[in-house]
Structures are given as C-alpha cells and as structure tokens.
User: Fold these one by one.
Assistant:
Number 1:
Amino acid sequence: MGEKQREFSLLPKIINGGIAGIIGVSCVFPLDLVKTRLQNQQVGPKGERMYKSMFDCFKKTYKAEGYFGMYRGSAVNILLITPEKAIKLAANDFFRHHLQAKNGSLSITRQMAAGGLAGFCQIIITTPMELLKIQMQDAGRVAAQAKSAGKVAPKVTATKIALELFKKHGILGLYKGIGATMLRDVSFSIVYFPLFATLNALGPRKCVGSDEAVFWCSFLSGCAAGSFAALAVNPFDVVKTRLQALTKAEGERVYSGITDAIIKTMKYEGPLAFFKGGACRMIVIAPLFGIAQMVYFLGVAEAMLGIKH
C-alpha cells in the first residue's frame, strides 16, 4: 500500500486541473450562457418563446448586450472553476489509483465508482459556483422580458446575490439546488470518466512502452466522452438550472424541488423540454473537457514543479 501511495502525486494533478479549467471555460463561456438561457426559457400558453434556437439566442444576446454581455457571470466561474476542475480531475485519479486491483487493473464498475465519487466531491464548489453563474447569465433574459412588460429588472452582481443569500439563509443559501447538482454531476462523472479512459486507451502512445496517449488523442477522447455524457444527463441539468434560477420573469413557474420541477416541466412542456439546450451543452462540454484533458495530460504542473511526468 505504501508503494502504491508514493506513486500518486496529488499536487500537480490539482494544479493541472485548475489550469485546464480556466483555459476551457474561457473558450466556451458564451455557449454556456446561451445554454443557460435556453434551459430557463419557459414556453408561454400560446407557444410563445423569447429564443427560437441556439443561434437565435446567441444573436439576440449579442445584439442586446454586446460582446462582453456574452461573458456575463464569467468572473465568478473562472474564479471557482480552478478548484472545481482541480477537485474533479484529481479526485477521479485519486479514486482510480486506490480502487485498482493489485495487478493494476480497474474494472468498469470500479471506474464508474471512481467517477461517481469524484463527481460527489466537486459539488462543494460546483453548487455555489453554478448558482451565482446562472443568476448572472440569466439576468439579460429576465431584464428583456421585464422591459417588454413595461417594467425594469434590478441590476444584479454575483457579490450582491451571494451576500443576500448569506444574510437570509446563512452558508446553506449558497447551496440551493445541491440535490439536483449532485444528481447531475455524479451521473455525468459515472458516464464520462470510464468512457474517456476507454477511448483514450485506444489511441497511439507517446512512445514505445508508455501508458499515456498522445495529446491529440486525449483531446478527442475528452471531446467525445464529454459530449455523450452531457447529452445523457441533460435532463438533470435542466432541472438543476431551473431550481437555481432565483429571479423569474413575470408569469414563470416556480419549483419547490427536484420532483416538482420534473412534474411541472413534463406537464406543461412535455418530455422534449428536458433536452432544451442539449445541443448547446454538448458543444460546450466537448471542447471544455477536451481542452481540460489535453492540458491535464500534457503535465504542465509537473514541468513547473520539476517533477518527472
């Protein structure tokens, strides 16, 4: 056991995960904003909706709020994505390392267990990050609907939202929707990590005798596994996004919990509503995890710390 633990170095994995998260989020944030607005959009009684498609949402948001409007809420995301991605990627490696058999093999069920545990660990950071990010991302949609109704929506900032939640509900106020976040992230990690490992193992190695794939293989494997897992758990993401949207436009439904959100969404919008923003989420997650895995496996932190990768 001692030899097995000495072989695992946690610090560089945490640093690599943080670097990977910042690069990935900076590249795909505008698409993530569009995804949030599409998922929060509710269909009116006559079938009316603000955004007809992903492209329509992107066009209207850019026209109304400009280039920097596409990055609304990115500051809090970039700030917290470092520990979030670091925990997710490093925890998966940690659990895979300690769940492997004596001969070094790792069954699919153990890979799924490692992924699920990694997803569970990350929610301590993911939940408040997503809660604040969603308010910022959705503020433009709520403001536009308020304007069309002849009203003015109050301006919001991540700091203001966080302080108000903390004053009203304490630290638990920042963890609204934690059940739905856990449901999404644990299930995503159960699907993503074993699939990524399987695809990554099929590609060419860095050199003869190496167990590491070339960087482009890790990138493509991350993209493919990320997009598939994203679509698979999109219904949970829709529920989580709606539960965490604190500000609703006039006439929009309010949900009391996961079950209530599922029932009302199914009743008023049908099963396809659970796949709102699905294509957008796939486009977001694919490069996000492709970039993350590529940076992670390049061993940037090992080079910085002078550790042999």
Number 2:
Amino acid sequence: MGEITLDFLQGLLRADYPDVTIQNFKGTPGSKRGDNYTSMVYRISLTGVRRHASSDGSREVEEPWETTVIYKCLPESLKRREAFKSEALFCNEVAFYTKIWPAFMNFQNLWKIPHPFQSIPKCYLAHNECVVLKDLKREGFVMADRRQGLELEQSYLVLKQLSHFHALSLAMKYHDPEGFYELVNNKDGIKEVFYIEENTEYFKNYYREAISNALSMVEEELSESPDKEVYLDKFRRFCSEERFFHTMVELCTPKEPLAVICHGDCWTNNFLFKYVNGDLADMYLLDFQIARYASPAIDLVFILYLCMERELCAKHVNSLLEFYTDELHGRVLQMSDEDSIFTTTLNRDALHKLVMEEWRRCGEFALGTALDAFPVFTCDSDEAPNVYEADDDASQGSGMQPVHTSNAECRRRMTQLPMALVDNGVI
C-alpha cells in the first residue's frame, strides 16, 4: 500500500465528498486468510473534517468525518502473481469496471427500467495494479461464512440478481451486437484466463495433484459402499489427464445464442447480503477477476452444485431454474421491443429449454471446479496460502499449488457431488 497518499485519496473521493478534507488514513487486511487467493484486499479507514455552512448561513462549521473504502492490489510476491496468474485476472477486473459495467449501465439506462440492475459495488478507481471500491460493510452488507452453503432464500436472491446481470448481455447482444462483442475482445475486454488450450501444460501438475487429493477423499468416503467402483470409475474417467482439461476448455467456450458475460466465480465469498429486521433484503456481486464470456450455466452450476447443500439443491433445483428463467426472460423483455426475438424464437419456453440444455451440458464444469473449490471452501485458515506475505511457503514452488485439506466436510462434499452427477447421468 506504499503508493497510497492523502492526496491520492483526496482526489479519488473528491466527487463524492467535495466538502471534506481527509487528514489521516489507515489500512488493515479486508479479508481473512483463506478468503481470497489472487489479490490482497485492504479496508482503508479515512478520517478528516467536513466543512459546511451553519444552519443560518452566518459562518462555516467543521465537524468530524470518517469513512472506509476497499482497496485491492496484486500480491507482493512476484512468484505468487505468476503462479496464480494474478496480473491477467486483475486486467479482467479492470476491464469489467472501466469498460463492461459502464457499457451495461448505459445500455440499461436507454430502456428506463423501473428497477434497474445495480448490484455491483461503486468503483472509484480501476487501473494497472489496484482497484478501489465502495465499502458495502458500512451499509450493513455482510459476507456469508464460506464453510456454510447458501440457504434457500439466499439462493433465490442470488439467482434473481444474476439473471438480471446475464440479461444485460442477451439484450445488448441483440440490440447492439457490435458494441457488445467489443466488450469481449482479447485486447482490452474480458478474456478467459484459465481454461484455454495453451494452459494445458501449465496446469497439468496442479490438476494432477488436485485430482489425486479428490480421488483419495472419495475412495475413503466410499470405502464401505457396494457401489464404490461405479462412482469412482466415472469420476476417474472424467478426471483422466487426456480428457479433463480439454473438457473444461470446451465448457468455457461460448455457445450461442445463450452465451453471456458470466460472473465466473460464484462462490459464497463473492456475495454480500443485507438483512433488515432479520429479513433478507438485498445483495451485491463482488470480484470480477474470472469474468468470462461463456454459457450462463457456468454460473448456475457453481451456485447450485457447489454453494448449496446437496439435499437442498436436489429438492429445489427445478424450481430454482424455473425462477431463474422467469427472471431472465422478464428482464430481457424490459430491454426489448415488442417484436424482438424474446417474444418469438427466444420466448420464455424456448429460453427455458436452452437453459436446461446448458444446465445438463455444463454439469461437468461443477465437478472440475470442485476439485479445488471444495478444499478452499472448507479448509482452516492456516491451511490456506497467505497472500499478505511477500514470500510464504506456497509461493516458493514452481507453480500454483492446490489447497490441501482432507477434513470431514470436504470429504463429504467432494463425494456427494460426483455421486449426484453420476446418478443424474451427467458424467
């Protein structure tokens, strides 16, 4: 945080606080160890004075002022940056806040929607190696516990906001295709960072280790099951070195007409929730470093297969996907003319058919993501790499290393998912 100065902060917040003089600031880690992996997050507390005219206008009054902002920057360790592809991920987030989100807001404003999608935190600055965001904690938003799955009410709200976000892609792609595809060009738009064929060798050792860990956990959990080999055989086939990475690349390749700009990293830590009098009232989406142009089902399988308890998802998955489709179609209609494709070839029923086809096709993506996601979700903090250290053990290796844990919760979740996918005919 050495580049932060009072002048820097004063200039950054001048538009929002023109009558404030910032006098002091202090930065503290904005997340716990294990809550983020590719960047450092700080909460910067600012104090100063606010000057304004007295109620009768006769004199100037000074009063104490304070606020906080969120500051994201690249890890100090150059080895860690390289291992986790932090710089490429950071470029994605900068592109999102400086190019994609402004374009989406401008497009959305053209339609004068009564309740526009706004569940993205205000960005004060996004460039090179830092992103500065509004601190939503000040407004009562809280992060759910990464070790706990999403509750049903939370899942519905996440899908509602996500459907409205996805709808911006579908509507803009229809009405302004040239403008939309400019957002996903490889020069200054978002781009796939992980699942591209040229990364096959780069990630080979990483996934070899992650797969070995996952198979060991599933074998242990199913040791007494008479169907052990049925599940393990299909799991191993999916994870084979010849097939696995190519499958993930294929699943992340956009498929029209339903491809959208996805959030890309829909785990619990990237959702902030607000409760009013104990009732769930609002939520925000955070962290767009893995934003990608792909099937919306990439986000859906992440939320429903990885962030919900298995029994809860199985019981409500059809209703949740119906709800997502209703919200998605309802929102694109608000951003379309009466004779658009969303009333004909992509009407509600046609859209739902496509959503369900993509849901089934992309189910494997959930399993591929779970190989490293479940250990991240369930590990103790001291098992996770510490991104705030310049040179910790994890950064000394030759590349990115998966989180190592074999706790009971991780074993349970890592076993339930492939069993469900096998039972449902996905793998």
